[in-house]
Amino acid sequence: MSNFSDADAAVVTAQLGRPARGVHAVGYRCVCGKPLVITTEPRLPNGTPFPTTYYLTAPRISSRIGTLEGNGVMRLMQDRLGTDPQLASDYRAAHDAYLADRAAIAAEGGFDVPEIEGISAGGMPDRVKCLHVLAGHALAAGPGVNPLGDETLALLGFDRAVCVCEGPWPWPEGSRELGLE
Ligand SMILES: [Zn+2]
Hints:
The chain has 7 helices and 3 strands. The protein has 181 residues and is mainly alpha-helical. The protein has a 3-stranded antiparallel sheet, sandwiched between helices. The N and C termini lie far apart (45 Å). Helix 3 crosses helix 4 (85-109) and helix 5 crosses helix 6. A hairpin with a 5-residue loop joins strand 1 and strand 2. It has one domain (6-177). The mean pLDDT is 92. It binds zinc ion. Residues 30, 32, 34, 163-165 line the site of zinc ion.
C-alpha cells in the first residue's frame, strides 16, 4: 500500500510546480514529514518508460546540487571511477540495487518495461551524469548504498536530523569548502 497521501501530493505539486506522475510511494521524508524523494513507477500513466525510480523533489536540495554540478564535481567523480577500483565496484553495486528496487516496484504493480531493462539512471554504472539522481537514491536507500550519492549529500552538509524545507539554509555550502568556486 502506498504511503503517498493527498497531503503529500499537494506538497510535491508545490515543490515541482506541477503534479507528479506515476508516483508509487514517498521514497524519503524530511524530518519535518514532507516528501523529499518520491518513488516512481517504471512506466508513466501516458505509457512513457520512466527510469528515474527515485526522484528528488526537494527544490532547495535540487538547487544546491545544481550548483555542485556547475562547479565540476561530476567530472571529478567520473575521473575517480577510473582510478579507484573500490569506488567503481561500489558504484556498480548501487546500479544493481537501483535495478532491483525498480524490479520490485514493477512486480508489485504488474509493470513490464523492457525499454529500460538494465538501464538505471544518473549515469550508473560507470558514468556520473546527474547528481540529483544519485542523491535521490542515497536518500531513499540510506547511507552505504550509493557512494557518490552519499558524497553529494555530504558536500551539501546534509543532516537527516535537520529540516531542509524552510528558513535559512541550515548548512554551509560544501562547494565553497572544496575550493570549487
Ligand atoms: Zn522539512
